[in-house]
Specification:
- With 309 residues, this protein is an alpha/beta fold.
- It has 13 helices and eight strands.
- Helix 8 crosses helix 11, helix 8 packs across helix 13 and helix 10 (222-234) crosses helix 13 (285-298).
Amino acid sequence: MQVAIAGLGRIGAGMARRLARNGHQVIAWNRHTEVATELAAEPENLGNVTVADTLEAITGLMTAPRNVLVSVPSGDVTRDLIEQLAGVLEKGDVIVDAGNSNFHDSQARATELEARGLEFLDMGVSGGIWGLQVGFCAMVGGKREVFDRLEPAIRSLAPDGGYLYCGPAGAGHYVKMVHNGIEYGLMQAYGEGFDVMHASAYGLDLAAIAKLWNNGSVIRSWLLELAGDAFTREGNDLSDIRGWVADSGEGRWTVAEAIEHDVPAPIITLSLLQRFRSRRDPDSFSDRVLAALRNEFGGHAVKSSGEGS
């Protein structure tokens, strides 16, 4: 099927490539057109990528009803791009927000676009820079009939069993929000555990331990696998990485939602607060582990040990 991808950053480009390599016709738009041109020229994409020089060009390159997937940073950038698309698309076309938008924004956006005759899906995705290789876990909200229409493309994006229709508008981003809140807690626990071992007198091989635990242990996970990769590449001390840990918003929203519903969520809350602390005192080994993990799964930039705030 035809799918336009608007925004070819780390995730958007990965989704464009995965769709093209699975036989879908991808219309690629990026603010810097040369990025789309280079992607279209990749032989692995089987000639299935066509470049749209402008957002307006998307409509002429696609058969109605059109499906346009937006993959840009959440907030004003997403809002502005969707508003621009709404001005050029036609009644019945679909806009899919595949970024990490706040679910409240997605609920409002669905209502606004429906009033203009456009359809909307919110699709939270997990998989980071590894999504092209192993698939993007997709959590989708919106009208069921619109999801059904796009399901062939969503299926191609995801690994086996790796996508779900979660409910009406906002549900996809809601589930992804909680997913990321849980991720904060898991990462914090791994960081603290490796910090304890790093401080011990045993001279433990942290890379070897991470790999050991991924063979039969009850705490095995992909995050643990990535931790082992980071220790192998960066060394036991992660000495070149500064323990400065960003947060992209979903952890804050998860905590706010827990408070709204009187749900005690101390682990997620404290893991979020620990990220705030890392920016004032970025010398903790556990924070170096977190920074390394964010780089491993998402390609998020790390600060070097000699770099200021």
